[in-house]
Amino acid sequence: MNLDPGLLPVGLPSPYLKGKPQSLPAFWYWESFLAWLLEDPPQGFTPEGHEGPTPEIRTHVSLDPEKGTAREGALFQTSGLEFARKAGSLRRLALVLWPEDGVEVEGVHPLGGERRLALWRKGGPAVPGVPSSLAEALVQTRAARVVLLTPGFFGGAYLPEGGAIAGAQVEAALVGRAVAVSGWDLAQGKPKLSRRAVPAGSVYFVRLPQAWDNDQVRKWLEGVWFQNLSDLPQDRRDGYGLAVVGVWSGKPVAWEEA
After folding, report:
1. How many CA atoms lie less than 13 Å away from 14 in the CB half-sphere?
2. Cis status of the peptide bond prior to 41, with omega within 30 of 0
3. Would the pTM count as exceeding 0.90?
């Protein structure tokens, strides 16, 4: 893919870093993730975490409703996630949801597209607040990293409309291969059209306007931190483009010569 005019390239700082990167846990503990957001660039960084829920595949047989017996050759499989990790001893995992309408449920209720039953409990950790050291860093540098935690949809393919995120201009982008997103349209009773989304984990390096005062910088940070940034309102309501912010010096780094 050709680099858009005006964007800086993103890559490793040294041509000698040619070995395979070490494998990292799929899910990072918040302390490790926060340390990565607050340091630019992280030196000798090794995150701690786990691999998340265990994939679970179940085999079923279709039943004849009149006879109550199995249909010949009518086997099918369903896939799901078991919220437990078997590393030495069994470790149970939980999924934290923050309802936008503030309504919480408790007890046994369905969860997910296949409506499997789950045990719901009220309480749990709140949405992490904006770290004070992050706000102070942005006031000094007027630059930041914006990291997507969920896939996002943008009008400019991999770039937001106008090449800016809430007024902060994108200067560089590290974007993975597009992911196909579809689903079921409950209103129409048919599959939704497949769309290509910017993958989770993509990083945008943005520069905040120098004309902004300190309060405007903090307001921008609060408006982006753990907010959905996709261009269209419905995509934001559906949770696409959830983002966090990390520090960036705002200074391009020269690549070493091979």
Report:
1. 4
2. yes
3. no
